[in-house]
């Protein structure tokens, strides 16, 4: 039976990809590195350190661990500053409605995000009250595609993986959900999240009615 829902944050509840893009672009420009939207897509769902490594690999650059950390921190400072302009109007369409509906129906709800800034983002959106459990980039060491963050969230809700549905927009996020034994809902195009149990193009279509209709024997 489904008793809990675990949500990724960036790309599911709000669209921070553009803000991440702008911060990585500024850093890359300063460093003389190539960075474009296609490369930014590869950073979807993965941790900050994994992200800078993808950019460095693409540019055939190698640096010491300390230098990498310093640059990742610089990018993060720019990203965090840009979050100040985020408001309650910045939910992806449909996200707040779904979270509200899950609260009304009494489901357990957790966040399962790779971001170390998840609490700040939730506060900007005024979304903290929708979650019983917050799993973020500080909760586990191994990031997606490892299932650890979702297993952490399920454990904190006292639920086994097969009692939970994970909502994810990243290919590696769906990989993580499947490896952990969770049911999965992918948000985005077939090429990215077609391996999820159920897929919607956007959160707007991802209503509780649709989810229940699809997983009907589990409700
Ligand atoms: C994920 C984003 O949610 O968080 C990634 O999809 C990002 O793009 C990752 O790299 C880590 O975020 P942060 O806020 O800790 O740098
Ligand atoms: Mg995401």
Describe this entry's structure for a reader.
- By secondary structure, the protein is an alpha/beta fold.
- It has two domains: 4-15 and 88-218, 3-Layer(aba) Sandwich (Rossmann fold), CATH 3.40.50; 17-83, DNA polymerase, domain 1.
- Helices cover 44% and strands 11% of the residues.
- It has ten helices and six strands, in the order βαααααβαβαβαβαβα.
- It has a six-stranded parallel sheet, with helices on both faces.
- The longest helix has 19 residues, at 65-83.
- The N and C termini lie close together (6 Å).
- The relative contact order is 0.17.
- The mean pLDDT is 97.
- It binds 6-O-phosphono-beta-D-glucopyranose and magnesium ion (MG).
Could you name the ranges where pLDDT drops below 50 across 5 or more consecutive residues?
none
* CATH top level assignment of the largest domain: Alpha Beta
| Tally of separate domains | 2
Tell me, rounded to a whole number, the average pLDDT.
Answer: 97
* β-strand amount: 5-15%
Number of E strands: 6
Question: Which features characterize this protein?
Answer:
alpha/beta, binds magnesium ion, 6-stranded parallel beta sheet, 6 strands, 219 residues, DNA polymerase, domain 1, binds 6-O-phosphono-beta-D-glucopyranose
Give a topology summary.
Blueprint: E1 4-7, H1 17-31, H2 37-41, H3 48-58, H4 65-83, H5 95-104, E2 108-112, H6 118-125, E3 133-135, H7 148-156, E4 164-168, H8 171-179, E5 183-187, H9 190-193, E6 198-200, H10 208-214
Parallel strand pairs: 1-2, 1-4, 2-3, 4-5, 5-6
Magnesium ion is lined by residues 8, 10-12, 44-45, 169-170, 173.
């Amino acid at each position: 039976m489904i008793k809990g829902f675990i949500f990724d944050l960036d790309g599911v509840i709000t669209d921070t990809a553009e803000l991440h893009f702008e911060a990585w672009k500024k850093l890359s420009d300063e460093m003389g590195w190539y960075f474009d939207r296609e490369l930014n897509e590869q950073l979807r769902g993965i941790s900050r350190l994994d992200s800078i490594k993808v950019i460095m690999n693409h540019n055939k650059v190698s640096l010491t661990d300390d230098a990498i950390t310093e640059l990742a921190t610089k990018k993060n400072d720019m990203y965090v500053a840009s979050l100040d302009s985020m408001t309650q109007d910045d939910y992806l369409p449909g996200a707040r409605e779904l979270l509200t509906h899950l609260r009304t129906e009494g489901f357990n709800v957790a966040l399962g995000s790779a971001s170390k800034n998840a609490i700040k983002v939730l506060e900007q959106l005024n979304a903290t009250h929708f979650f019983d459990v917050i799993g973020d980039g500080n909760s586990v060491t191994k990031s997606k595609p490892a299932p650890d963050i979702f297993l952490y969230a399920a454990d904190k809700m006292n639920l086994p993986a097969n009692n939970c549905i994970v909502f994810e927009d990243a290919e590696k996020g769906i990989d993580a959900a499947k490896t952990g034994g969770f049911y999965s809902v992918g948000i985005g195009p077939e090429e990215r999240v077609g391996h999820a149990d159920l897929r919607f193009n956007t959160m707007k279509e991802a209503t509780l009615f649709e989810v229940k209709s699809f997983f009907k024997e589990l409700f």
